[in-house]
Specification:
- This protein has 239 residues and is an alpha+beta fold.
- It has a domain of 161 residues: OB fold (Dihydrolipoamide Acetyltransferase, E2P) (Beta Barrel).
- 49% of the residues lie in helices and 20% in strands.
- The chain contains 8 helices and 8 strands; from the N terminus they run ααββαββαβββαβααα.
- A hairpin with a 5-residue loop joins β6 and β7.
- The longest helix is centred in the first third of the chain and has 46 residues.
- InterPro entries: C3orf33-like, SNase_OB-fold_sf.
- Keywords: Acetylation, Membrane, Transmembrane, Transmembrane helix.
């Protein structure tokens, strides 16, 4: 009888130790799940946040070249004024709408020096309230340097940066916000140069050669003798 009691006591002791070990494990798992839940919630909040200023966008979004969606409002000489349209998640989005501020982001076409004809082309190609995607490359002077993409079909999209260069409506420029020694900088710069070269070969846009009559007219108007003669005639008329 004594042996049975001691065996039962030993079994209960082992069961108690096993329970303590597994309770600790369960507590650790529940704590880990809670922390993971907080991180997921925080990430969801950041992804569903509506950005109304360039400075509101987290630094890591710019560094990781995150792609955002927006609604075009206006095309100005400074860039595109875009309303950010964040990802919508039930419950979280409904709460955020109560305190999100209103404002427009200034989006510039990275790596492109736009010609006046390029501005006219953008105003014709893009429509107010049109949805666009803009990939963050840099942030400078309260503006966002981006690759701007427009849907041209169910599975097709057009990069406005490249298309403007391909049409000869601008020149390649330094991609502000990206480091010169980064692989992404040179990858995009090569793409832009190839697009500009196509316009150059086809004499499109700003690369279009002047006609023979235009060249002769320019030479005559810039001739020093002709300019002196014009000044003399103007002097005679005024006197």
């Amino acid at each position: 009888m004594a042996e049975r009691r001691s065996g039962a006591a030993e079994a209960l002791a082992r069961l108690s130790e096993w329970a303590d070990e597994h309770l600790g494990l369960l507590r650790s798992l529940s704590t880990g799940m809670a922390v993971a839940g907080v991180l997921v919630l925080a990430r969801s909040v950041r992804m569903t946040t509506k950005f109304s200023r360039a400075l509101d966008i987290p630094v890591e979004f710019v560094e990781k070249n995150v792609k955002l969606r927006g609604k075009l409002h206006r095309i100005t000489e400074k860039g595109l004024e875009v309303e950010h349209i964040p990802i919508s998640i039930p419950f979280i989005t409904a709460i955020q709408r109560k305190w999100q501020s209103k404002g427009l982001l200034l989006v510039r076409l990275a790596g492109v020096e736009l010609a006046p004809s390029g501005m006219a082309w953008l105003q014709q190609e893009l429509k107010p309230q049109q949805m666009i995607w803009f990939q963050l490359l840099g942030r400078e002077d309260l503006a966002l340097e981006c690759l701007v993409l427009v849907n041209k079909g169910r599975f097709l999209s057009m990069c406005l940066n490249e298309e403007i260069l391909r049409q000869g409506l601008g020149r390649t420029a330094r991609i502000k916000g990206l480091h010169h020694d980064s692989s992404l900088y040179w990858k995009l710069h090569k793409r832009f140069l190839r697009a500009e070269l196509k316009a150059l070969k086809k004499n499109k846009g700003i690369w279009q050669e002047e006609s023979y009559s235009e060249r002769i007219s320019d030479r005559i108007s810039n001739n020093k003798f002709v300019q002196t003669l014009k000044q003399f005639v103007s002097w005679l008329r005024s006197s």
